[in-house]
Amino acid sequence: MGSLNVGNLGEYLREQRRNAQLTLRQLADAAGVSNPYLSQIERGLRKPSAEILQQLAKALRISAETLYVQAGILDERSREEAEVRSAILSDPSITERQKQILLEIYDSFRRENGSSRTSGTKDDNNGSKPSG
Question: Basic and acidic residues bias located where (predicted)?
Fold first, then answer.
């Protein structure tokens, strides 16, 4: 089998597994995948689905978005956006309504600054001081 250009993901997973002081078998069991399959992912021979990456992230106690970026499923900007959303949604000190309002404001700012994926334009005032 040839490499599927997912070697970086495999190396990253192996590093995270070692940092968590888990054996290949322990991580495979925790994530609900087979030992050989996880080994093939780590060696860059298999490209796991987003669902498998999520299971691995949960078992490693790391962000699934980080694994998605490593696997090429998400770009860096999308990961950053997902992390902001996750931080807002997981904050126990604010209400659900406040979380929704914060997300609406965040989306509004991203649209205004041309940062959303639907708008490819750059901010016209980039680097200048705001007026008013």
Answer: 112-126
Which runs of consecutive H residues, i.e. helices, occur in the chain? 7-19, 24-31, 35-42, 50-60, 64-71, 76-90, 96-112
* Residue 53: closest CA among 33, 35, 80, 36: 33
pTM of the model: 0.59
Task: Catalogue all structural domains in the chain, each as residue range(s) with its CATH number.
Answer: 7-71 (1.10.260.40), 76-112 (no CATH)
Residue 57: which of 79, 84, 75 has the closest Cα?
79
CB atoms within 10 A of CB 70: 19
Q: 40-67 pLDDT, tens per residue?
A: 999 999 999 999 999 999 999 888 888 8
CA distance 74 to 88: 20
Q: How far apart are CA 7 and CA 67, in angstroms?
A: 12
Secondary structure element (H or E) that encloses residue 94, with its range: none
Q: Is there a contact between 76 and 69 (Cβ–Cβ < 8 Å)?
A: yes
Q: By the 8 A CB rule, do 58 and 86 touch? A: no
